[in-house]
């Protein structure tokens, strides 16, 4: 499905204590950036921050202020004590898209039953689609498939396009 939006923009937020400290490279953020480029998105920002509700929330607010079409987080969607990305994201979502969250888990489930542990949210704020993806490169690759299937259509609907 195509959208008539001329340039699709995206922002990426990686939530990872270890990547923020430089203990390891942000592989999932890099996979996400390359994948979004391949899907036709221009990535206007890519940040790596610790697993902290306030810091994640501030970065989400900053990305929303830049009016990107798509905001994707990677990391912090599991059940460990430091996984807080859904909690930081929830206040920014005006309308949930639970079917897309379920599609992400269902697609990942084909490869690993651990996909069901993701608490990632999907929703919209204004004309921005917000998606929480897992922090693993494979989880991001799976997420990119679903993003490619539905996000251009969501963006065109948010822009007021008729889909009869």
What does it look like?
By secondary structure, the protein is an alpha/beta fold. The chain has one domain: MoaB/Mog-like domain (Molybdenum Cofactor Biosythetic Enzyme, Chain A, 3-Layer(aba) Sandwich), CATH 3.40.980. It is built from 6 helices and 6 strands, in the order E-H-H-E-H-E-H-E-H-E-E-H. It has helices at 17-20, 27-38, 53-65, 85-89, 98-109, 137-158, and strands spanning 8-15, 41-49, 70-74, 95-96, 122-125, 128-133. A 6-stranded mixed beta sheet has the order 2-1-3-6-5-4, with helices on both faces. Strand 5 (122-125) and strand 6 form a beta hairpin. The longest helix has 22 residues, at 137-158.
Count of discrete structural domains: 1
Give the structural class.
Answer: alpha/beta
The total of helices stands at 6
Query: What is the CATH top level name?
Result: Alpha Beta
Low-pLDDT segments: 1-5
Q: What is the architecture at the second tier of CATH?
A: 3-Layer(aba) Sandwich
The end-to-end distance, rounded to whole angstroms, is 13 Å
Query: Using DSSP, what is the number of strands?
Result: 6
Helix amount: 40-55%
Strand order of the largest sheet: 2-1-3-6-5-4
Beta-strand content: 15-25%
What Rg, in angstroms, do the CA atoms define? 14 Å
Nearest-integer average pLDDT: 94
Q: What is the CATH homologous superfamily assignment?
A: MoaB/Mog-like domain
Q: What are the secondary-structure elements, in order, as H or E? A: EHHEHEHEHEEH
CATH topology: Molybdenum Cofactor Biosythetic Enzyme, Chain A
**Biggest sheet: strands, sense, closure?**
6 strands, mixed
Shape: globular
């Amino acid at each position: 499905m195509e959208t008539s939006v001329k340039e699709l923009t995206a922002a990426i937020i990686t939530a990872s204590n270890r990547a923020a400290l430089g203990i390891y490279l942000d592989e999932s953020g890099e996979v996400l950036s390359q994948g979004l480029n391949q899907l036709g998105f221009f990535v206007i920002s890519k940040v790596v921050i610790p697993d902290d509700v306030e810091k994640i929330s501030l970065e989400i607010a900053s990305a929303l202020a830049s009016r990107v079409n798509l905001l994707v987080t990677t990391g912090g969607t599991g059940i460990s004590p430091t996984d807080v990305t859904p909690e930081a994201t929830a206040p920014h979502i005006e309308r949930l898209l639970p079917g897309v969250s379920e599609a992400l888990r269902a697609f990942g489930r084909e490869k690993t039953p651990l996909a069901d542990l993701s608490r990632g949210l999907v929703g919209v704020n204004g004309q921005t689609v917000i998606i929480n993806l897992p922090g693993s490169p494979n989880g991001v690759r799976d997420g990119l498939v679903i993003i490619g299937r539905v996000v251009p259509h969501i963006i065109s609907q948010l822009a007021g396009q008729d889909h009869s």
